[in-house]
Design goal:
The complex is a heterodimer of chains A (526) and B (384).
Chain A (H helix, E strand, L loop, with lengths): L11 H5 L4 H29 L10 H36 L7 H9 L1 H10 L27 H28 L12 H32 L13 H35 L6 H14 L15 H13 L1 H15 L8 H24 L1 H7 L3 H31 L1 E2 L2 H27 L14 H31 L1 E2 L39
Antiparallel strand pairs in A: 1-2
Chain B lengths: L1 H27 L16 H34 L15 H29 L7 E8 L2 E6 L8 E4 L5 H4 L17 E4 L4 E7 L4 E5 L4 E5 L5 E5 L5 E7 L11 E7 L1 H22 L5 H15 L1 H4 L21 H10 L15 H13 L11 H9 L1
Parallel strand pairs in B: 1-5, 4-10
Antiparallel strand pairs in B: 1-2, 2-3, 5-8, 6-7, 6-9, 9-10
Helix pairs in contact in B: 1-2, 2-3, 6-9, 9-10
The chains are: A mainly alpha (526), B alpha+beta (384).
């Protein structure tokens, strides 16, 4: 008996050698939260410096290191791993699989992450400082003009890429092979669908990023001139390659968030998701379009007008499937029986703020108008509406939603709601005024600004401190829940929740679905 | 629950209403740039077209937003469990789903029409009456007038805001960070074509009120243009992260009457002739040191430190180059160090300034070489 139903190993080796999807998911989630705090503290330094005009706290070079590391850590360290963690925990439980298909690779894809970020953070203490060319690291600022730490940075990107590709292969293999009998593709929960599509995106574009940084490495150390015009190369080539990765990347970040919200809104509306099929097709269309719009990040590089028009029209088209999603979520709520527990609040926050981010995205897609928006704070506001209020809010919603299932204890609802409202107010106070300063002409990535931008920057900084400190409340609430939350053993923690994960005991045992569940052939997806 | 729903509604609709309110307020108070909340139509017809396009799309988004959020808040209010509703069970409707795929598509087509025509307007480079070559340097702009009357006129435009204002030891002036030593001057009612490039990394030349933003890319020459219809001083900044002092390389454009422009370009040409004359002269050590300090503060201090202590660049104080062989020092100053951030200053400084700054570096910050460089030495070195 003991041989077949063993629990976790004891001590450190449980975590080091684990191949259990729940353990690995947990590690991913904690790691990404740690990175969220690290990247957040960089943001706090940025906002503190920008609190008033003049240079107060840091020098311009260090400021550039902060904007660069903030972006890199948040994108690659916080948001992406958090959704991989969620995928690890939830995908097997949602499709009735006993674990991920490739458990040893799963362990490996997590454990190469912490050393990579340790290395990246260590560049702060190197001579010449950390990378300082922005998270988009345009050549030649990131090659010929970069500090020596760029080599370490390139290595880190390679490691992160390998980790992401392994994680994605694992997800694809799991979804394709380990679905319980009867769990057809069109019965999978939407979270699984969005992750399947995301995983394909990752496998397609992470090697492109690896190619870009390898070319950088060659330029820096081996005398090539991929990105140096002086040697016959082309600095704009870097941007094309980078954004061929970079644009799908933003959908890599947001698609799983769509998946989460598509699970939570039906649960608290007590009504099935509206337009399941169209949700799947919309996700696939967005993924396809993401490959043919990359140069909308480069309207000002001097493309021929045919290029501008193509990328403008293709980008505008993304509004159609994205609109379908928003309409579907709202129709899901329509004539439901709504309650507003914390996960629902964060999902509604997502819905409203992501939609606003979508509107500004549509505005940015208009090439002639983008000549004024480009590289201004308007862009900063836009992508924080989709990255923070989109991805981070939905991730927060996911934690509140599944935490009781994970640990068998209920979080404190009042504290959760307080966390939401502080986050919501802090977030909007931070990023809404950035639309204004951007439209009025404030460029992004500057450590100091002209006097007319003072008031809005001050508001922005205050908002950032509020949003930042609300995360402490979140951390406290999660730890308090795990340690001393009110125990619950309801399989279905939420009365409106649907899906296989709510059929296993609470807290979810170390191994679930060792024998595949029976899938109700009529009752489709949740 | 009622209260909560209402609060949720108020706070989520808040941003949209705030935006609308502020945009309206902003148009009224457009005279003052402080706390401006919207794009400026600026001083060109292209700027006006872009502004109109921006506002059209903004209002379309507001209307869609009000409708979508309106439905959502209706649902949040009326379809709450606490009102004792029983949830419906519908989960698809082909008709509705087709409608909300097709209708947005046509709205997009309606947006694409004015967007395309504005873009065509911007891409019409024909009939420019004069050309200015703009080159981005870390961290300054160089302007060269390329048409016949502008021959010989070229200059650098550096940030004029003193370090004291930036580091909070002095009161900040009105145009803090948006002021330069020598602004670009162009005539009003003239189609001016800008050829934009860069010397080191990528920069972007952005003046919002002239509706121009173009990346300055080393090895490429981009084209853009403006046609200002109102005289005035227009201020902008570098828009593409270009290293340490990205935030400190502003752009100032004086749009003046055609007569004023003619006078100004005449003066600039006379100045250039004067420099040419100076290049044939010899100077005393004191003269070179005095001129050299000014050049050093403008062109070297950003990387090598105001006191020669180093920073992004190596220290000048005690440097083996500045205290070594004279021709080696000239070589580094004139041709730079390839593969590093040390630029070739031979094309940036005239021979007088180059001679002065090399002399200064060899005799300041505790370097005590006692030798000096004359413009003719620089000229000879350049010739090889």
């Amino acid at each position: 008996m003991g041989d077949h139903h063993h629990g976790p190993a004891k001590g450190l080796s449980r975590w080091l050698f684990t191949t259990n999807h729940k353990d690995i998911g947990t590690m991913y989630l904690w790691f990404s939260f740690a990175m969220f705090i690290l990247g957040g503290s960089f943001a706090m330094i940025i906002r503190a410096e920008l609190f008033q005009p003049g240079m107060q706290l840091v020098d311009p070079l260090f400021f550039n290191q902060m904007t660069t590391l903030h972006g890199l850590v948040m994108v690659f360290g916080a948001i992406m791993p958090s959704f991989v963690g969620l995928a690890n925990w939830m995908i097997p439980m949602m499709i009735g699989a006993p674990d991920m298909a490739l458990p040893r690779m799963n362990n490996w894809s997590f454990w190469i992450l912490p050393p990579a970020f340790l290395l990246l953070a260590s560049t702060l203490f190197m001579e010449g400082g950390a990378p300082q060319a922005g998270w988009t690291f345009y050549a030649p600022l990131s090659t010929t003009y970069a500090p020596p730490s760029v080599t370490i940075f390139i290595f880190c990107i390679h490691v992160l890429g390998i980790s992401s590709i392994m994680g994605s292969i694992n997800i694809i293999a799991t979804v394709m092979n380990l679905r319980a009998p009867g769990m057809t593709y069109m019965k999978m929960p939407l979270f699984v669908w969005t992750w399947l599509i995301t995983a394909f995106l990752l496998v397609a574009v992470m090697p492109v990023l690896a190619g870009a940084v390898t070319m950088m490495l060659m330029d820096v150390h081996f005398g090539t001139s991929f990105f140096s015009a002086a040697g016959g190369g082309d600095p704009v080539l870097f941007q094309h390659v980078f954004w061929f990765f970079g644009h799908p990347e933003v959908y890599i970040i947001i698609l799983p968030a769509f998946g989460v919200v598509s699970q939570i809104i039906p649960a608290f509306s007590r009504k099935p998701l509206f337009g399941y099929d169209s949700m799947v097709y919309a996700t696939a269309s967005i993924a396809f379009l993401s490959f043919i719009v990359w140069a909308h990040h480069m309207y000002t590089v001097g493309m021929p007008i045919a290029g501008e028009l193509f990328f403008m029209y293709a980008t505008m088209l993304i509004a159609v499937p994205t609109g379908v999603k928003v309409f579907n979520w709202i129709s899901t709520m329509w004539r439901g029986a709504l309650t507003f527990e914390t996960p629902m609040l964060f999902s509604l926050g997502f819905l409203v703020l992501f939609t606003i981010g979508g509107f500004t995205g549509l505005m940015l897609s208009i090439a002639p108008a983008d000549f004024q928006y480009h590289d201004s704070y308007f862009v900063v506001a836009h992508f924080h509406y989709v990255m923070v209020a989109g991805a981070v809010f939905s991730m927060t919603a996911a934690v509140y939603y599944w935490l009781p299932k994970w640990c068998g204890r209920m979080y404190n609802e009042t504290m959760g709601k307080t966390h939401f409202w502080i986050s919501f107010i802090g977030f909007n106070l931070t990023f809404f005024p950035q639309h204004f300063v951007g439209l009025a002409g404030m460029p992004r990535r500057i450590p100091d600004y002209a006097l007319q931008f003072t008031d809005f920057n001050m508001m922005s900084s205050i908002g950032a401190f509020i949003y930042g400190s609300s995360q402490i409340l979140f951390l406290y609430n999660v730890i308090a829940t795990i340690v001393a939350g009110k125990p619950t053993s309801d399989e279905k923690v939420w009365d409106g929740a649907e899906g296989l994960e709510w059929t296993v005991p609470t807290p979810a045992p170390y191994h679930t679905f060792e024998t595949p569940p029976k899938i109700d052939p009529v009752h489709a997806h949740s | 629950m009622f209260l909560r729903a209402k609060r949720l509604g108020a706070l989520a609709l808040g941003p949209v209403l705030m935006l609308v309110g502020l945009l309206c307020a902003g148009t009224a108070a457009a005279a003052s740039k402080v706390n401006e909340v919207n794009m400026s139509p600026g001083a060109t017809s292209v700027g006006q077209s872009i502004f109109d396009l921006h506002m059209t799309i903004f209002w379309i988004c507001v209307i869609i937003g009000v409708l979508v959020f309106g439905v959502m808040f209706y649902s949040i209010y009326y379809h709450r469990k606490s009102r004792g509703v029983t949830p419906a069970t519908f989960h698809e409707s082909t008709k509705v789903e087709i409608a909300w795929t097709v209708v947005p598509f046509f709205i997009l087509v309606a947006m694409a029409v004015p967007a395309t025509s504005t873009l065509l307007e911007i891409y019409d480079f024909e009939d420019a009456e004069m050309d200015v070559l703009i080159t981005g340097y870390q961290w300054k702009w160089k302007y060269e007038y390329l048409n016949e009357t502008g021959d010989n006129v070229q200059f650098f435009s550096n940030l004029r805001t003193p370090q004291g204002e930036i580091y909070n030891t002095e009161e900040k002036g009105e145009h803090y960070l948006l002021e330069v030593d020598e602004p670009l001057v162009i005539p009003v009612d003239t189609k001016v074509r800008f050829l934009v490039t860069a010397n080191d990394v990528i920069h972007a030349w952005w003046v919002p009120e002239l509706a121009v933003k173009k990346d300055a890319i080393p090895g490429f020459i981009n084209e853009t243009w403006t046609h200002a219809t109102e005289e005035g001083v227009y201020r902008g900044q570098c828009a593409e992260l270009c290293g340490k002092d990205h935030g400190f390389m502003p752009i100032v454009v004086n749009v003046v009457s055609k007569e004023e422009y003619a006078t100004w370009i005449g003066e600039k040409q006379a100045e250039a002739a004067e420099i040419k004359k100076l290049m044939a002269q010899s100077f005393t050590l004191d003269e070179l040191m005095e001129r050299g300090k000014g050049v050093y503060d403008r062109s070297c201090a950003a990387c090598h430190g105001a006191g020669g202590e180093g920073g992004l660049g190596k220290p000048i104080a005690g440097s083996p180059i500045a205290t070594g062989d004279l021709s080696g020092h000239l070589e580094v100053g004139i041709n730079g160090v390839p593969g590093t951030a040390m630029q070739a200053f031979g094309g940036q400084l005239n021979d007088v300034d180059m001679a002065a700054v090399i002399t200064y570096q060899r005799n300041a910050f505790g370097n005590n070489m006692g030798d000096m460089v004359q413009p003719i030495d620089v000229f000879n070195h350049k010739k090889g």
